[in-house]
Design goal:
15 helices, alpha/beta, five-stranded parallel beta sheet, 2 domains, Rossmann fold
């Protein structure tokens, strides 16, 4: 297994479960050719509207029976990349609000097992980590289960929690994000969307985004098209994504929407499109927009980016840990409530400017107050 694969496996919260090898660049057709005007009009009018306003709830609805026990310790294993710094903000704030102690270690992405072993040696009450599939830390998770220390996570990929692996998994699927992006493209195009999803197939969790897009297009615009441009970790690390995308677009001139399964894949793409004379011929859409993407939308760029609440992840993991320590188990429908983080599409200068000055979205405006209410703390 390549160490580089683990490192890039946590570039973004949903880029989590990694395969044992890296697939080669390629593409594959998944729907039929472009539509006529009547079919296009029907697709535009019948497709549901995408979510383009910020969600107002944190997703978790079951209140605790009493306030959290004080003085418990949550050990947060933080990855080395910027996205995990945002999650850390949430973990710190949440543990403080709950009256818990916070401990932290930045682990090496190439060796997550060592990080978990270090956390276990401290004997905390609960441990949190993101972006690592359970198979990569199987022995350490078994040791945690034996010691009675629950390990909670986000974005571990397409797997279910269990007594011997992760006790709770938030951001379990990004399928709804792929669906929402597809609905946006179908309606924005007037039912004439020809979409290519840009992804790295060695990250299985990204398949949910790609499949969500393809399924929504098939259901709501059968005469639209979807395709996939498969890239590799080396393409991303070597700055080759933009050039390979340009080559793809030049050989697929009907494609008018490019969807990125995470924003890092879009680095350098706007500049490359302009240099190739393709500026304005394709619309960029993607999951987990960052400062560059939201500033572009704020400046008038015709793009659409999913706002991903990384800070909220920290609160969700802390919530799960509290419930497991104080109650011994999670509510019956809890996992379904945290399967997908609340997200929305930012597609206008007005909504993008609302994210200034950070050009980030931590979660619903009163997310902290919602958690405190669930926990019965002031």
């Amino acid at each position: 297994m390549k160490k580089q694969t683990w490192r890039h496996g946590i570039v973004f919260g949903v880029v989590a479960a990694l395969a044992v090898s890296v697939a080669a660049c390629g593409s594959s057709e998944s729907s039929s050719s472009s539509s006529g005007s009547s079919g296009a009009s029907q697709a535009q009018s019948s497709a549901p509207k995408p979510i383009t306003t910020p969600p107002t709830t944190v997703g978790i609805t079951t209140p605790m029976s009493s306030a959290p026990s004080k003085g418990k310790t949550f050990f947060w294993l933080q990855c080395e990349l910027p996205i995990c710094g945002k999650i850390t903000q949430g973990v710190k704030a949440a543990t403080t609000a709950a009256g818990w102690k916070y401990e932290n270690l930045v682990f090496k992405a190439a060796d997550p097992g060592a990080g978990l072993e270090s956390a276990l040696q401290r004997k905390p009450d609960a441990i949190g980590i993101t972006g690592i599939p359970s198979a990569a830390v199987k022995a350490q998770l078994a040791a945690a289960a034996k010691a009675g220390i629950p390990v909670v996570t986000c974005s571990a990929g397409p797997e279910e929690p269990s007594p011997t692996t992760y006790a709770a998994i938030c951001s379990h699927t990004t399928g709804p994000d792929g669906e929402n992006q597809a609905l946006w493209a179908v309606r924005d195009s007037g039912g004439k969307a020809n979409i290519v999803s840009v992804t790295i197939p060695s990250f299985p969790s990204l398949a949910a985004t790609v499949n969500g897009t393809a399924d929504a297009v098939k259901k709501h615009c059968p005469k639209c098209t979807t395709d996939v441009l498969n890239l590799t970790v080396d393409d991303l690390g070597g700055g080759q994504v933009a050039s390979k995308l340009i080559a793809y677009l030049q050989s697929h001139p009907k494609v008018n929407y490019v969807m990125f399964t995470f924003a890092d894949l879009a680095a350098g793409v706007p500049e490359a499109l302009k240099a190739a004379g393709l500026d304005g011929k394709v619309t960029l859409v993607g999951n987990g927009g960052g400062e560059a993407q939201f500033k572009a939308v704020a400046g008038g760029a015709h793009e659409a980016w999913v706002a991903y609440p990384a800070v909220l992840e920290g609160w969700q993991m802390t919530d799960a840990a509290i419930r497991l320590i104080d109650g011994g188990k999670l509510p019956a429908d809890y996992q379904s409530q945290i399967d997908h983080l609340p997200t929305y599409i930012v597609d206008t200068p007005t909504t993008a400017k609302q994210l200034a000055p950070s050009y980030d979205w931590p979660g619903p405006s009163d997310y902290a107050e919602q958690f405190k209410k669930l926990w019965k703390v002031g």
